């Protein structure tokens, strides 16, 4: 049902989307450091960063859904491929 190439593509999609999701936490951490450095001295910068935090949060929600979907597709395909291999042995009998 799923070739090794298909499984590799699905795995890569799941891995890449997970990495993109985790990158949002790195960005959040860097922005938080900047925010903490300017909170008392730059009102405009603080407001701007508040807006950026909101955008990052919305982006993270979208990326999380992309990752969960890609992960689910890969897991499903891997299970289907495993079940197919399990039921096909050399003499054609179920194992």
Descriptive notes:
The chain is mainly alpha-helical and 95 residues long. The chain has one domain. It is built from two helices and no strands. It is rod-shaped.
Order of helices and strands: HH
Poorly predicted tracts of residues = none
Structural class: mainly alpha
Major sheet attributes = none
User: Which overall shape is indicated by the principal axes computed on the Cα atoms?
Assistant: rod-shaped
Number of strands: 0
Total helix count?
2
Total individual domains: 1
SSE diagram, text form:
Elements lengths: L3 H35 L4 H45 L8
Brief rundown of the structure:
By secondary structure, this protein is mostly helical. It contains two helices and no strands.
Short descriptors:
single chain; 95 residues; 2 helices; mainly alpha
